[in-house]
Amino acid sequence: ISRIGLIVHKTKSQDFQVLAGSAGFLMAAYCVGAVGGVCALANVLGREVCELERLCVSGRWQEARVLQQRLIEPNAAVTRKLGVPALKQAMEWFGFHGGACRSPLQPLSQEETLTLRKDFSNNGWL
Description:
mainly alpha; TIM Barrel; 6 helices; transmembrane; 4-hydroxy-tetrahydrodipicolinate synthase activity; membrane; transmembrane helix; Aldolase_TIM
């Protein structure tokens, strides 16, 4: 977040926009001047990620914080924790076409699928 804030500060006199690279810190990025995000989680919870943007832009920080906190675990699951196979599985659960993983990626194991389901369920998404 400090790096995002520094980039925003150093480029404020230029025609330059800074985006967050993850829904896991999207609210914090808005706080330091980012104007949006490129978020893998938006493939699954697109409306919710867009709602977080609306809450931040309109200054509704209490509501934004609650939503941001609910997005952290599922975001981590479909990015750094379980990666693309988890993103594809979650997309299927939410009625989208995630499709099969391409080599060298492998589908989630049964244990990984349970972990993914828990990360979404614990936060009220499933």
